[in-house]
Amino acid sequence: xxxxIFHWLKKAFYWFIGLSILTxxxxxxxxxxxxxxxxxxxxxNKIDGNDAVLSHDWVPLxxxxxxxxxxxxxxxxxxxxxxxxxxxxxxxxxxxxxxxxRRLKGGSTISQQTAKNVFLWQGRSYLRKGLExxxxxxxxxxxxxxxxxxxxxxxxxxxxxxxGAEEAARVWYRTSAENLTKREAAGIAAILPNPRxxxxxxxxxxxxxxxxxxxxxxxxxGKIEY
Length: 226
Description:
Layout: H1 2-26, H2 36-47, E1 55-56, H3 66-76, H4 88-99, H5 110-119, H6 126-142, H7 145-155, E2 157-159, E3 162-163, H8 165-173, H9 182-190, H10 205-218
Parallel strand pairs: 1-3
Antiparallel strand pairs: 2-3
Helix pairs in contact: 1-6, 3-9, 3-10, 5-6, 5-7, 9-10
C-alpha cells in the first residue's frame, strides 16, 4: 500500500511539473483570458448579492504607456529590471519591519505577484508560497522581463472588478492605456496595494501623496530596456 501511494505521488508530481511548464510555455505567447483572482472576486461579489463584474481587455505591451510601466516599477518593485525574480534585500527589510509591528508591503516582486495572480489562489500558506516561488522561477526563465510586465499589467486588479491597464485607464480616466499621462499612471500604481478600497481619480489625500512619491521615483528610472 505504501509503495502504491508513493508511486501515485511520484506520478502526480511528474504530471504537475510537465503541465505547469507546458502552461507557462503556452502563456509566453497566448493572452491570458482569466485568472483565479478574477474568478474568486466574481464569486465573492455574487455571494454578497452584487453583480459579478469582470472588466478585462488584453492589449500588447506596445499599447501600454511607458508611464504606467515606470509607475508600477517605482511603486511596487524598484529593482524589477535587475533581479531574477526575488528581491531578497526588500524581503529582509519587510520581515524586519513586520517584526517591529510596522505595516509595510511584503517585499513581493512584480514577478512574484504575476506568478501568484496568474497561476495560484489567494491566501497565505507555506504551500502557496512555495508554488509562488516555483512559478516565479519558471516565468523568469521562460517569459523574461518584458513578457512578465505585459502579463502583469494586463492581469492585476486595478479597481473593483477592473483588471488590466486598458480597463483601468478607461474606468479611472476615460482614456486608453497607451495615452496615460505620468500623473494618471501614478494614480493607478498608487492604488495597487488595495485597489478595491482606494480610487485612482478623485482620490483621498493619502493616495495623492502616494502619487507624488511615485512620480518622484519615476524620474530616476530612465528608459526601460527589457
